[in-house]
């Protein structure tokens, strides 16, 4: 099993979720986060005054998937979250050793 973690622009969430649903993804976790990458934040103008934004708002999506689903999930997220502009985000794939559904006690693939 793998945990696919993606950092995306907030307005792309609905598109990403709609792209994952046909793949059989039944659940995901979304967290509001702030951060910066290579762009090191950006300069904004508000009411005529210029100020520097160090941390930009992003969303972190986490999806636990079976090993055979990883490539399809990563491709779906990458395709739908891409705007072609700086700050589109990143996708991380991590190993998951064990999963347990608390309500039923199901483990591993059955718990997904």
Automatic annotation (TrEMBL):
Q: Keywords of this protein's UniProt record, alphabetized?
A: Nitrogen fixation, Nucleotide-binding, Phosphoprotein, Transcription, Transcription regulation
**GO cellular-component terms in the record?**
cytosol
Quote the InterPro entries the UniProt record gives: N-reg_PII, N-reg_PII-like_a/b, N-reg_PII/ATP_PRibTrfase_C, N-reg_PII_CS, N-reg_PII_urydylation_site
Q: Which residues get modified to O-UMP-tyrosine?
A: 51
Per UniProt, what is one GO molecular function of this protein? ATP binding
**Which GO biological process annotations does it have?**
regulation of nitrogen utilization
What Pfam families does the annotation carry? P-II
Membrane-traversing stretches: none
Top-level taxonomic group:
Bacteria
Q: Does the keyword Transcription apply?
A: yes
Q: Which family does it belong to?
A: Belongs to the P(II) protein family.
Under what name is this protein listed?
A: Nitrogen regulatory protein P-II
